[in-house]
Amino acid sequence: MEDGIVLGKLDDFLNWGRKNSLWPMTFGLACCAIEMMATGASKYDLERFGCGAFMATPRRSDLMIVAGTVSFKMAERVKRLYDQMPGPKYVISMGSCANKGGPYWQHGYNVLKGVDEIIPVDVYVPGCPPRPEALMEGLITLQKKIANESLLQDKWGKNV
User: Exposed, middle or buried by CB within 10 Å (0-12, 13-18, 19+), for 151?
Assistant: First the structure.
């Protein structure tokens, strides 16, 4: 830094802003939602990661945390909410049920066998239900992923 001039890549600047100002959507489906709410409360304080203001509308959020069991009836709504989110948008799959169907994976006729069957997932957080520390680790993993994105490619590496 000389004479008050800072040089850097535009990608680095924009990614710094995106990773430190994620706006998650309030979207809890089952018991994992309790742990997600605890993570946003004062004891764990997601705000220190730039991710504390949960939005009640998909149009103002860029992070969907799918927390819990996704039934076939709810899968259509999950997809619709994801499509309504502005880009760039990210998804964290939280808990065994959202990841791979949980205890219902084999015999649950009404349960989706992983939310990644309908929307792209960026980070998987294992557990039944995962502790708040696990969700925070998933958020940090997502922030690292965002820091390495490029403006010339979408988040799956395709040129735009």
Answer: exposed
Tokens coding 126: 């294992």
Interatomic CA distance for residues 158 and 140, integer angstroms: 24
The continuous run of DSSP H or E covering 140 comes out as helix 132-147
pLDDT (tens, 9 = 90+) of the chain, 160 residues, equals 567 777 677 778 888 878 888 899 877 888 888 998 888 888 888 888 888 788 888 999 999 999 999 999 999 999 999 999 998 899 999 999 999 988 887 887 899 999 999 999 999 999 999 999 999 999 999 999 988 887 766 655 555 5
Helix then strand count (H, E) for the chain reads 5, 4
pTM (2 d.p.): 0.86
